[in-house]
């Protein structure tokens, strides 16, 4: 069992009535994946912004260390009965002021309190072939009912907000756009720091970087084909765990030889260093809800090449990203241009740092509290 956590110091209260919020911590099952990172960062920011409030997180065993400023309880492990019947009963007994779902879902049972959920993306509705089968309970019942029942839906980008309206037809006024933040540890690093990091991580002198789960939606195969065609190519470093339907991607990676390096379990604390060391970040994903790796790379001053900016509107604005054509040849040309043109790389570095500075988890936490406050007000008698 996780150790008990202390409640926030009442002396730190900012004069507002302290709310008690129940939080779905299921995303902490994979703390290095997108929803896991979001859950960790947003709850930390919320705890700092409103120390007068109590956050009770229900999550998987052993994940309490990712949310130290909260009270932690274990989620029932039975998928249907536990999550959708037993857990709502536990929540009702706590009588919280509101429920917050960072993983984009509500249990099917009645919670008897206002609710706010965060929708990161609806890629599975956009293209089901990117995902494994066998998810009818989630896609046909849990997610639609969650979106329709939630008092407020947080979308992490304007494109995700449009998708929520398109697929579920809810009133746009029930949606609040709250972009992700970027941690202050993502920054340009000094030369001596980088040399120490290079020796520690055993990465080559020149390399292109990919960061993301290895799965079809991330379009890594196109990047692999483009990299194989490059003239005077740097090495390629792939940072990310295996997701689903990755078998053909894995076979291609194995055929490309020793200059392709796969770091499957990189410590998240090393991410700023590896962004800084890379000549460019290649982000070929066909669809994104927000696009956190490009933003993190920009904050480190790393040039970024993307496949499309339509699903990255907040990140891409004024950032000077290089957009590659959809095929491997287009990606080859874009990567060669960024690697060879030092003036272009310097311009991308400057614009990226300025753009990334406009995002913070502090702001995201504050806006999330505003959405919860709004949900509580709307449900008040």
Note the topology:
Elements: E1 20-24, H1 34-49, E2 54-59, E3 71-74, H2 81-94, E4 98-101, E5 115-119, H3 123-126, H4 136-149, E6 152-155, H5 158-168, E7 175-177, H6 191-201, E8 207-211, H7 220-229, E9 235-239, H8 247-255, E10 260-263, H9 271-277, E11 280-283, H10 292-299, E12 304-306, H11 313-316, E13 322-323, H12 328-340, H13 342-356, H14 361-379
Parallel strand pairs: 1-2, 1-4, 2-3, 4-5, 5-6, 6-7, 8-9, 8-11, 9-10, 11-12, 12-13
Helix pairs in contact: 1-14, 6-9, 7-12, 10-13
What key attributes describe this structure?
381 residues; alpha/beta; Rossmann fold; seven-stranded parallel sheet; 14 helices; 13 strands; 41% helix; disordered N terminus
Structure description:
There is one protein chain. The protein has 381 residues and is of the alpha/beta class. The protein has two domains: 10-181 and 361-379, Rossmann fold (3-Layer(aba) Sandwich); 191-356, Glycogen Phosphorylase B (Rossmann fold, 3-Layer(aba) Sandwich), CATH 3.40.50. Helices cover 41% and strands 14% of the residues. It contains 14 helices and 13 strands. Strands 3-2-1-4-5-6-7 form a seven-stranded parallel sheet, sandwiched between helices. The chain has a six-stranded parallel sheet with strand order 10-9-8-11-12-13, sandwiched between helices. Strand 6, helix 5 (158-168) and strand 7 (175-177) form a beta-alpha-beta unit. Helix 1 crosses helix 14 and helix 7 crosses helix 12 (328-340). The model is unreliable at 1-15 (pLDDT under 50).
